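Structure first, sequence second, as always.
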């Protein structure tokens, strides 16, 4: 089994490096300075357990890979980049190989199923960041991360069982889930806070607005008949976020995108998922809609991270309400 990790950022880099350390054949797909750095010097993974450099082949596009029948593809890019990645995999001649969505949000799996028959969901619990090309950091201890994995839309099979064994042996905590999307909706609810923490510097305000955003979301999911896992993630009792000497953690994947100046955020597929379901089921979601608008200001650089105040979000809600009323 070759494992092709498509998107060597923070999470994809940590997964690829750890699998490489465990002796598995890994192929990466990256871009820009990250691609150049890995080709030149490998990928260094720092964790509370120390730092090591992984060496594995990395490509700029799937067309550079000769796909084999037993290859497995991990999608590890953010959702805004998923469609393009799937189109490039399709153009490269990939057919029946399994596609695992190691991504936040719940939109990737359905999108992948338009292109490929064997699609799997993976809930990612792996706090990691990437600032410097050729270097990623993962902050969980004593193991590097944890995943809930299952076939999409539900069920399991031999591919899941085999991959769970591979990941477990490589140092991850893995839980095979027959209904993996219930786990991914649980993570979606937690990820509603990403844009809030990126926008607001005050912890009390962060808690306040997350409570409002989550209340909206739970009402929408209930109305939509969505089953989400109401228990905490299995790994939470076993893993702890731990400092890495010489490094300061950047924060959520959303804040990392702002810091790197990518120009776009994944908020439309996190808080925006709640807005979408609210519109489909005629339930107002003013807080999550305002947070999506706020993400545009942060992504464009017109607003600096953690500079918003209580009145910023309130004013956006009022402005959107006034616009709807005409």
């Amino acid at each position: 089994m070759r494992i092709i990790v498509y998107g060597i950022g923070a999470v994809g880099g940590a997964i690829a490096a750890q699998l490489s350390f465990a002796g598995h054949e890994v192929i990466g797909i990256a871009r820009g300075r990250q691609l150049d750095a890995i080709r030149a010097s490998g990928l260094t993974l720092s964790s509370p357990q120390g730092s090591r450099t992984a060496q594995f082949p990395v490509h700029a596009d799937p067309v550079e890979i000769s796909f084999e029948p037993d290859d497995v593809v991990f999608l590890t890019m953010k959702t805004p980049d998923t469609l393009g990645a799937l189109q490039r995999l399709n153009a490269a001649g990939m057919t029946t190989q399994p596609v695992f969505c190691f991504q936040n949000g719940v939109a990737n799996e359905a999108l992948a199923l338009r292109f490929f028959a064997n699609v799997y969901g993976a809930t990612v619990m792996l706090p990691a960041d990437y600032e410097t090309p050729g270097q990623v950091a993962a902050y969980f201890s004593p193991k590097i991360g944890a995943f809930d994995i299952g076939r999409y839309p539900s069920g399991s099979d031999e591919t899941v069982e085999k991959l769970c064994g591979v990941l477990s042996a490589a140092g991850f905590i893995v839980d095979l889930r027959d209904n993996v999307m219930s786990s991914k909706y649980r993570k979606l609810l937690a990820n509603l806070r990403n844009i809030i923490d990126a926008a607001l510097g005050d912890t009390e305000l962060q808690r306040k607005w997350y409570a409002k955003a989550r209340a909206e979301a739970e009402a929408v999911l209930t109305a939509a008949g969505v089953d989400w896992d109401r228990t905490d993630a299995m790994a939470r009792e076993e893993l702890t976020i731990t400092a890495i000497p010489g490094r300061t953690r950047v924060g959520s994947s959303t804040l990392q995108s702002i810091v790197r100046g990518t120009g776009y955020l994944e908020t439309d597929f996190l808080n925006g998922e709640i807005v979408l379901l609210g519109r489909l089921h005629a339930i107002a979601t003013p807080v999550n809609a305002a947070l999506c608008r706020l993400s545009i200001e942060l992504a464009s650089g017109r607003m600096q991270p953690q500079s918003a105040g209580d009145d910023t979000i309130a004013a956006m809600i009022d402005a959107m309400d006034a616009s709807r009323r005409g």
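Margin note: Residues 3-325 form a domain with the Rossmann fold fold (CATH 3.40.50.720).
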